[in-house]
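Researcher: Next sequence.
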Amino acid sequence: MKDEAIKVFVVARPEAGLTVAEVQAFCAGRLAKFKVPKFVEFRDFLPKTSIGKIEKKLLRVQK
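Model: Next structure:
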């Protein structure tokens, strides 16, 4: 069995000044406890396909 954890990728405006704790608190107030992300990664952009969909496979591979 494979251990898995929830990870969220966030693209935020620089002036927003978000922190990992703020993102987790936001999610905790809206999601079930087991759905709250354990890992938060801030990105400048998300990789997209030629038709504009998010490349989930690339997000899983990239570190």
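Model: The CA atoms of residues 2 and 60 lie 15 Å apart. The chain has two helices and two strands.
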